[in-house]
Amino acid sequence: MLHFPWGVAVFLPFLLGQTPIPHDPCYNANQHPQFCLPDLSELASGRLVEASSTCSGPPGRFSNATLTLALGRRMEILYVALRFCSPRPESLAIYKSMDYGRMAFMPLAGRPSAQRFEYSPILQDWVTATDLRVSFDQASYGVAELQVGGRCKCNGHASRCPAGKDGGVPQCDCQHNTAGPECDTCKTFYWDRPWQRATPKDAHECVACNCHRHSHRCRFSMELFELSGRQSGGICLNCRHHTAGRHCQYCSPGFKRDFSHPITSHRVCKACQCHPIGATGAFCNQTTGQCQCKNGVTGLTCNRCAQGFQQSRSAHIPCIQWFIPPICLFVFCSPGTECQSHCTPPQRRVHMNLKNYCKKDYVLQAQLLAMEKSGTWWQFTASILAVYRQRHVPIRRGEQPLWVPEQDLACRCLHLQVGKSYLIIGNDEESPDPARLIIDKNSLALPWRDAWAHKLRSFLQQREGYCKIPIPSPPH
């Protein structure tokens, strides 16, 4: 409440803000966005001012009188002026509300930050009002004129605030890709950065999301915005043209990138065209277009049998191996003679308990990525996924060579297939080279089952103090 002991006119100079630039206040000469404000106007002109009592009316219940002005929307009030036509009142108070008459305000005078009004959201909200009320302590005087200077509250994003349809409530003519009654939000699709009030130093314009022309909708993520160094937080929604990803920069599953078209083209992604029988599914590598083929099938779209395989009549196994392993041609082995004496058929089921676990030198999970012939050995490129029991020469996770004797593979002592994952169990006692990871006819290579992981992890935790791992003697 403000008290004025005397005076012919009352003037409240709140803060006048910046003067708009004539040509285009919201953009500079280089068409870069900048801070802008609507023109200052006289808000009381043409509006109804309600008086609690008049000279022609009966005396009121209370000795004080009030003048009330409803502004119709949120305005930034810059001054209030009164001109009297009677003896001056001893004192008066001026109130304002930001919520259409439900709350009063306290004065701004003396606040240290008043000189930096454009940078203070608190002060900008303080001078914002939807209604004004002037209260006089005594009713025996006359008021000739009430003037209220102000402008529409547009948060620095509009230079015009024209009246609505049929002379209705003024509306901000929002710029900087903002929207809302007070330019207090970003337009749809302009959510790559969070909305902010404009300041003389930074217009804080709303920025469009980068969806490569494949979407017209996006949302804002503060987490991504912070992770990007406060540069970008938009996430595209409903990507079209078979695209996907935060910026619609990838192809959807089942589609691959067509590099003959730019990323903004609606033809940038085309179907994988994987063979319905030769491929494991409709998905392919989005860059190369390579489909995932079934065993014995090859080709970009998995449309032919690989070398050494011939077409079958089965849709589940379209290509079957037709040749005899080369090793059998030289040692004259066959399933009924040399190969049978060389090894027994591999076990399909293994009863693994802690005692049997401790008897093994190593237990690991590996995926076979590739294979090539090296003398009397087959060298597999294996990706070690987990090590559940370690040998004396440590086995590291990641890619490393896995060696298998040629005859063990030819006689089917081990069933190994590139692309598959296996549980590999073995000992190092008969290994010709302890530095190498070797599996042979005495080892086990079982197709991996996810159900084994929990049990093997429990063995790994229990082995401390149970498994007696011999430690090599130091050299003399």
UniProtKB/TrEMBL annotation:
Assigned GO CC terms: basement membrane; extracellular region
Pfam families documented for this protein: EGF_laminin, EGF_LMN_ATRN, Laminin_N, NTR
Main location: secreted
GO biological process, alphabetically ordered: animal organ morphogenesis; dendrite development; motor neuron axon guidance; tissue development
Domain Laminin N-terminal: 1-230
SUPFAM superfamilies registered for this protein in UniProt: EGF/Laminin (SSF57196), TIMP-like (SSF50242)
Subcellular location field: Secreted
Domain spans labelled Laminin EGF-like: 272-321
InterPro entries xref list: Laminin/Netrin_ECM, Laminin_N, LE_dom, LMN_ATRN_NET-like_EGF, Netrin_domain, Netrin_module_non-TIMP, TIMP-like_OB-fold
Keywords: Disulfide bond, Glycoprotein, Laminin EGF-like domain, Repeat, Secreted, Signal
The NTR domain, residue ranges: 339-467
Annotated signal peptide: 1-17
Disulphide-bonded residues: 272-284, 274-291, 293-302, 305-319
Stated name of the protein: Netrin 5
Name of the gene this protein is made from: NTN5
